[in-house]
Amino acid sequence: MTEPDRIPAADLPPGAVHRVGDWAVGNRVGRYFAVSRRCRHQLADLSEGTVDADGCLVCPWHQSRYDVRTGEMVEGPHGFLGYHGPTPGYTQFVRAYARILRLRVRRALRRGDDVVLE
Ligand code: FES
């Protein structure tokens, strides 16, 4: 079975994020992006995340933030498992290993009525 590699552009207004196969595809202030879907912290599905005011992809579980242009985690998690709150040392530790284990990045371009992953 081949992986779907496109989504209707109408489904991706600014700020939206959707799942396209193994990818979280979104619209960052008018620019489309595609990154691998699993958060480097505890594997939350980033296609259920949000785009913040800085254009970063925010994990739905503990709010780690990712630069979708590079796949780098730019802010670590605020919690773990079911806990949501400050974890200063742990947050820095996760961010340190996530620098090495960046999200994969794929180009996402508008082609006609669709956004296509290259
Ligand atoms: S699973 Fe993404 S921040 Fe915890």
TrEMBL record:
Cross-referenced Gene3D superfamilies: Rieske [2Fe-2S] iron-sulphur domain
Pfam families: Rieske (PF00355)
UniProt GO MF annotations: 2 iron, 2 sulfur cluster binding; metal ion binding; monooxygenase activity; oxidoreductase activity, acting on paired donors, with incorporation or reduction of molecular oxygen
InterPro entries: Rieske_2Fe-2S, Rieske_2Fe-2S_sf
Residue ranges of every copy of the Rieske domain listed in the record: 4-77
Cofactor(s), names only, from the UniProt record: [2Fe-2S] cluster
Family designation: Belongs to the bacterial ring-hydroxylating dioxygenase ferredoxin component family.
Name under which the protein is recorded: Rieske (2Fe-2S) iron-sulphur domain protein
